Amino acid sequence: MCYRILARAFSAVVTYHNKENRAKGGGICVANHTSPIDVIILACDACYAMVGQVHAGFTGMIQRAMSRSEAHIWFQRSEVKDRQAVSNRLKEHVSDPDKLPILIFPEGTCINNTSVMMFKKGSFEVGGTIYPVAIKYDARFGDAFWNSSKYNMIQYLLLMMTSWAIVCDVWYLPPMHRKEGEAAVEFANRVKHEIAQKGGLVDLLWDGQLKRMTVKEDFKKEQQKEYSKLLKVE
């Protein structure tokens, strides 16, 4: 009910497709990530336990309030111990079918509603059933992408509330399982491809965090190597 009230504040118009594929208890729901309101959009139709980066300020206040009602998992990416603890808690969670499905955005950052970028492999290593979800916003009515380098959370929410409407489609895809002998990265890419295809998004291998950090030398060399293959020397 609370999430539906929040959705009304954004004048959200959401169409849910294939509801029979909604995540079930003990599973992991993974979706592409455009905006913090992705959580509200999905939680209007089902209940989830959340996993995400610890935030300060207004967002942190919301996280603390949410933790009073459900066993959500918040962590610091920079802390190795936190990453291990999250992995252990995820494995414990998916082993209990009576617990709420976990909602994870494997990109780890908001992407601009045109593409799906690299999925972090962590959530695909813990086992259990993966329930993919594709979210696509209609930018003609309001741009839902949160450019966190340009707007803080309060500014962003005000923009959303004063937009004409937030119109989006949500597709629940059939559940997926890791194949025997399949690496976690391969499984993550397979799920990402299905989400991109259903949502009409571009499937990219780039790390979404590149917008906040410098490109690794290994990645540069790999791209240079691929480009060199295009050059034909007689």
How would you describe this structure to a colleague?
This protein is of the alpha/beta class and 234 residues long. 34% of the residues lie in helices and 17% in strands. The chain is built from seven helices and nine strands. The chain has helices at residues 2-9, 38-43, 57-67, 80-94, 153-161, 184-199, 217-230, and strands spanning 12-17, 28-31, 49-53, 73-75, 102-104, 115-116, 130-137, 166-172, 202-203. The protein has a seven-stranded mixed β-sheet. Strands 6-9 form a two-stranded parallel ribbon. Strand 3 (49-53), helix 3 (57-67) and strand 4 (73-75) form a beta-alpha-beta unit.
Structure keywords:
seven-stranded mixed β-sheet; 234 residues; 17% strand; alpha/beta; 9 strands; single chain; globular
In short:
The chain has seven helices and nine strands. With 234 residues, the protein is of the alpha/beta class. The relative contact order is 0.19.
Strand content: 15-25%
For the biggest sheet, the summary is: 7 strands, mixed
Strands of the widest sheet, in order across it, are 1-8-7-2-5-3-4
The structure class reads alpha/beta
Number of helices: 7
Order of helices and strands: HEEHEHEHEEEHEHEH
Helix fraction by DSSP (H/I, runs of at least 4): 25-40%
Task: Give the overall form.
Answer: globular
Rounded to the nearest angstrom, the distance between the terminal CA atoms is 68 Å
- Indicate the radius of gyration in whole angstroms: 18 Å
Let me know the average pLDDT. Answer: 82
Number of strands: 9
Low-confidence stretches: none
